[in-house]
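Task 17 of the worksheet. Students: predict the tertiary structure of the chain below and write it out as structure tokens. Keep your answer in the requested format; marks are given for formatting as well as content.
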Amino acid sequence: MVSAGTNSLVRRFGGFATSLVFSTAVNLLAIPFVISTLGKEVWGELALAQATAAIFGIIVAFGWGTVGAALVASLPAEKRPQMFVDSLVSRGYLLLFGAPVMFVVMLLISKTDPFVAALASVAYVLPFVGASWFFIGQAKPWRLFLFDVLPQGLGTIAGLVLIQLIPHPIVFVLSLLVFNLLAVVSGAAGVLAQAERPLEADLRIGPAMKRLKDQKHGVIAAGTGSLNSNLPMLVVNQVVNAALPQYALADKLFRFAVAGFGPILQVIQGWIPEAGRTQSLRRIATVAKLAPAAGLIAGGLLAVLTPWASTIFSGGAIVIGFSLSIPFGAILAGVLIAQIVGLACLIPLGRGAALATSTAVGAALNVPLMLVLGLLMGAPGVAWSVGLAEFVVAGYQLMVVRKCLQNR
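Model answer:
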């Protein structure tokens, strides 16, 4: 007979999977439509803008997107909305700083029209002010879908329809901007509606900045992790620009694979801390043992399927060979292991500092290595450097988890 706890986990997984299926389907649909309507070069520039936004988004999210779900899960329900309001004020100020700086960077590194770059700098960074991590920590997948995932997906769909009528990237990016703003507003409204007592929004910049010091481990981990996964796109753009569409598509397919694992990770993040201290340690040990096998299997599948998928989703305009798909498989394996061990195991163990250290070590290895291998091997060399760095990150995290469990 299936227990109530198992039924709850299955329902929770189903809810998170709904968000995954919807967002993945929308973004997969966007690839051939954008390439066929605007061209693969414009699509590559938009992908570059997304990668750049992912780096600047770390400044805006400032760790809440990384450790926020675990923090929410560990807080009493009545204290959660006030925590979100405090984070929203701080992240709002960071958005005002981050988006203009990203705009300047986009003008320097890309061929994007300045007005498109300006819109993209706001549109692609806005989701980092959202409430997705809050709903994940609450284990409320349907709120995540309705208030965050659905509006963002509708922005992409509306953009695809509009560029069929007006084939210009401004139209597509403007649609994303409007609906991403809607996602931020509706997500905040969904959180505030749960408040059991009056909330205080302290808009003073001083307290808003002081709150950031408590997020130092989360933002270091997120920042270095983002550099590991997004800086390579910028390096490819500078070192071998002709390979940008191929690398961007391989990166997109890799990110879809990471997103595909998202519901499982989200369930695990809520499942471990809700069991109580003693049982949580047992669950952490089990998860840490299974993580390497899960990562390697997923990485192998991505390496094999990417050449086929690249032809399908680009309409034959972009073809990716095994020389690029295999290192991306290695990247996926390392990333999944690190996500499981880092976010689901280290945070409940109170080892946020180790999470930050591991990603810093990975970035310190990755940044110089990708420049060297990029010059020697082109795009595959950049991908191999990322894969090696991710395995170093995952190995360090596994070592810390095992030591923690041995000492308890």
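Marker's comment: DSSP finds 15 helices and no strands in the chain. The mean pLDDT is 86.
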